[in-house]
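thread: overnight batch results

M.L. [08:02]
morning all. the overnight job finished for the chain we discussed friday. pasting input first so we're all looking at the same thing
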Amino acid sequence: MSSDAESKYSIVDLFAGAGGLSCGFLQTGRFYIQAAFENNPNAQKTYKRNHGNAEVYNDVSDALSDEIKAKLGQVNVVIGGPPCQGFSNANRQKNHAISLNNSLVKKFVQTVLHLSPMAFVMENVSMLQSDIHRFYVDETDMETIEKYSIKTSFSEIPLLDAEFMFPDVDDIAKSMTRISNYLWNENDYLSLNVVFKTRNSKKLCVSLTKHKKRLLALAKNLIASLDENDPVLRHDHAAGIAIQGAIFSAAETNEAAEDLCKAIMPAIMLQRMFSKAKEILDNRIKVDRYSTENGLAAHVTSMAVIDYVKSILEASSTGYSINSGVLSAADFGAPQKRMRFVLIGIKKSICEDVELPTGAFSEANYRTVKNAIGDLEEIKAATEVSGQGVQLPPAPKDISELGQLLRDSQNLCNHISTATTSEALERFKAIPQGGNFHSLPPELKTTYSDTDRTQKTIYLRLKYDEPSGTVVNVRKSMWIHPVKHRALSIREAARLQTFPDSFIFCGTKDSQYQQVGNAVPPMLAQAIAEHLCGYLDCGANSNVSEESLLRRHMADTHPNGQCRPL
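M.L. [08:03]
and the structure it wrote out:
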């Protein structure tokens, strides 16, 4: 399609976060935001600040209302990254059987069906394409599974290990009334769970002191509830005695810490079982049977997340051609090896086959950390959030092409990092580029109870001459600047994500770090958007979906708007 002026397409951004996807789509000059949906208050503030005219709704469920649908009118493209853990990840948390985020993937699919856009883009964690990333089937899914012929299989939810079993424990798991009688207050459980996970005497004393008031009240109740004929209450009583003894004697050795953890373990394991069993009942998970041969387990039906999404949206009644795969942000010019699952759907009336975009970069010419943040090296990072930025000095002569691209403002905001303690400074100085917590000598690993299991991304010092790994909340992981003995700043993390300097993050320091880590790199989003335009333009040129074209705004000439071969 060639024209003196090209049309703009409307987008609705679901689970918009700070707006990384929207930012990339807008950078093409071919899209405008019709609405966004995001429930995190700080992310909302960031989105509104950077996309001022966009209407932002708090609850994504509103997108399913007829009132909002009428208000939006015809939507051209729905985009979004619904949070999704799936039970394969949720089980690792041990005290939760089901991730509440699972329903959000379903809402994304429901919104596409409800708004019926010309196209949609869903991005997520790379493992979403895996068959092991699954949903437990609930009673409300049965009609959908039958309608769209979604493939299912049998799965098992482990509830309680064999060593903690007792007669008729499965009857408790089936009864909401009995579960409620045994289940502790959530904050009581969380306080004791912090103690339970502690194997270091120093940290145990800190935990016991911090939660002393709540733990003593819990211990008193547990001790008073003793019933020798009830195995649950016997374990609760023993836990209460152990908690009380540890607080009054002050556990000062690792052996004492271990003894306390062993004493409260049965009660903790039972609370985790009650919590999981309650989730199964609350979420109306379809349980085929409970087994007690090798511990307590619920036998359920599950479906792969990717099968659920594709079966519904590729159905003949739905009418989308779909392709999906994992894209590396580094292939599209980001200085970061971030792997993201991307699923693109386009109405079959526009095209029968959809291809994924192909990046122009490879290992030989990947952009590096230095390309992204090298020009900020000598600019002092603040340690407190403020509404003020700092005036950028002139760019160095050797600034990279990427640095020039991202340096689109003379005022540098969000160049804020965590204050460096004396202990952290010692560690920073001992870690070389590319090194991490495991690079430290033993005497500098003292605050971690299990040093061998500490992740390799903790205390990671970035290498200037390579792309970074996946940017997460780098404050929690304590990522270190390649050459400065300090934590990476919010702005530096945002540069690695390819947010331009004019994009300003709002909220608390930790919230800003989290918003950056959760975002889709705008440079990747822009590549996806430009690729999508090739299909949409061809559809428009073929007079497809005339109603959907009535709401498009006219824009300045875009040099890359030619149809791609389909």
